[in-house]
Design a protein that fits this description.
about 475 residues; globular; Aldehyde Dehydrogenase, Chain A, domain 2; 6-stranded mixed sheet; alpha/beta; oxidoreductase; GABD/Sad-like; Aldehyde Dehydrogenase, Chain A, domain 1
Length: about 475
């Protein structure tokens, strides 16, 4: 894939970039290693001041970088602005809390004594340069949620961003430089996917994090495994959205629309499979389809637009293939199901709801990355859980019920990295985020996220003889 800004609302190529050659990559690896050797010795106060300055600059740049993101990948401008604000919040959160999150930990006194130590503690130390392979769908947020904790822990970052968001990628490097971070603390590498293996195998690179597709995650994990390097993977999701009889149906319906079409439906944590108890199925299905059909599809720069284009022509083709296969095998289209009429430019697709989905259809198992929802009828809680877990993914889940016993059952039995009741899945800097099964492993955000790329070091002092 060429490294280029291609406006998905028009299909127009706006700017292209040359990939780094091997010599240029080597220069950046040298710089990363040299910078880390010094940066790792800085104190938390210094790191926090730098990160707060970056947050201040991003806050001032929010409208400009939002327009860049919308131009490059097509999300509605209001959502792009919200993404920038979330990044500012997260940087400030880690600047405020990192020192406490990484404070020395002290084992129980009895265990210290039993080990023969006069004293002992656990210290979190940085690993080194970390390679981040990031996707286009949240081009600022996905990077910042890695970079903020990694930099506060004393690591340095090397970013291989998606090839269709190069201007956003370069902005992030410039942001940290303007904030006063050392020149090699965070570097954007404009490279193709073919260069990732060489960089990951380089002994100066300590670890890697990837957010993206399952095949990409499998590739990075296998290379890192061969090199015995730590990885964190956040991959695809086909998140269930359960609606049970005790739910507030009005809120469940209105939230379901946002949960499905956020970011034009191109989100790993977007609700994709709507599993509804038979007692409320007909009413939910009717109201859900009506609201989906009423969404405003159009220019992502326009204030009234609720759903913009898909990020690429291939992305739309993949979605069309899933919908066409489903209808061919008997799925019922409650709304949408094709390209919007009169929109010949850009890669738009109608908000779509499919019912009567069966296991013979590809969409039953594959992630639909766009504004397409699948609807399932469940006879009871047991069947709802069975459908929800009948996927290779396990990123997050949503459930609407006021019944405490049902809530406890769902926490116990839903196989996912998150269970969100009476609301939609969302990430917050203070809470761990990640999945299970083929949605990946490891966690980002919270105290768990900042410790992923730390050397958890036991420090032990023997008693004086």
């Amino acid at each position: 894939m060429a490294i280029a800004t291609v406006n998905p609302a028009t299909g127009e190529t706006l700017k292209t970039f040359d990939a780094l050659n091997e010599g240029e990559i080597e220069d950046r690896l040298v710089r990363a290693e040299q910078t880390w050797q010094e940066y790792r010795t800085t104190g938390f106060d210094r790191r926090a001041n730098l990160l707060r300055k970056a947050a201040e600059l991003l806050e001032a740049d929010a409208d400009d970088i939002a327009r860049t993101m919308t131009t490059e990948m097509g999300k509605p401008l209001a959502q792009a602005r919200a993404e920038a604000a979330k990044c500012v919040k997260t940087m400030r959160w880690y600047a405020d809390h990192a020192e406490a999150l990484l404070a020395d930990e002290h084992p129980r006194a009895a265990d210290i004594k039993d080990s023969g130590a006069a004293r002992a503690y656990v210290r979190y130390r940085p690993l080194g340069p970390v390679l981040a392979v990031m996707p286009w769908n949240f081009p600022l947020w996905q990077v910042i949620r890695f970079a903020a904790p990694a930099l506060m822990a004393g690591n340095v970052g090397l970013l291989k961003h998606s090839s269709n968001v190069p201007q956003t990628a370069l902005y992030i490097e410039d942001l940290f430089r303007r904030a006063g971070f050392p020149d090699g603390a965070f570097q954007t590498l404009l490279i193709g996917s073919g260069s990732v293996e060489m960089i990951l195998r380089d002994p100066r690179v300590a670890a890697a994090t990837l957010t993206g597709s399952e095949p990409a995650g499998r590739s990075v994990a296998s290379i890192a495994g061969d090199e015995i390097k730590k990885t964190v993977l956040e991959l695809g999701g086909s998140d269930p959205y359960l609606v049970l009889p005790s739910a507030d149906l009005e809120k469940a319906v209105s939230t379901s629309v946002t949960a499905r079409v956020q970011n034009n439906g191109q989100s790993c944590i977007a609700a994709k499979r709507f599993i509804v108890h038979t007692d409320v199925y007909d009413e939910f299905a009717s109201r859900f389809a009506e609201k989906m059909a009423a969404l405003e599809v159009g220019d992502p720069m326009a204030d009234e637009t609720q759903v913009g284009p898909l990020s690429s022509e291939q992305g739309r083709s993949d979605l069309e293939e899933l919908v066409d296969d489903a209808t061919m095998h008997g799925a019922t289209v409650l709304c949408g199901g094709g390209r919007p009429k009169g929109m010949d430019r850009g890669w738009f697709y109608e908000p779509t709801v499919l019912a009567d989905v069966t296991k013979e259809m590809k969409i039953y198992y594959e992630e639909a990355f766009g504004p397409v929802a699948t609807l399932f009828r469940a006879a009871g809680l047991d069947e709802a859980i069975e459908i929800a877990n009948d996927t290779s993914f396990g990123l997050s889940s949503n459930a609407w019920t006021e019944d405490v016993a049902e809530q406890e059952r769902l926490v116990r039995d839903l196989r996912a990295g998150g269970v969100f009741f009476n609301g939609m899945t969302a990430s917050h800097p203070g809470m761990p985020f990640g999945g299970t099964k083929r949605s990946g492993y490891g966690r980002e955000l919270g105290d768990h996220g900042i410790r992923e790329f730390c050397n958890i070091t036991t420090v032990w002092y023997g008693a004086k003889g």
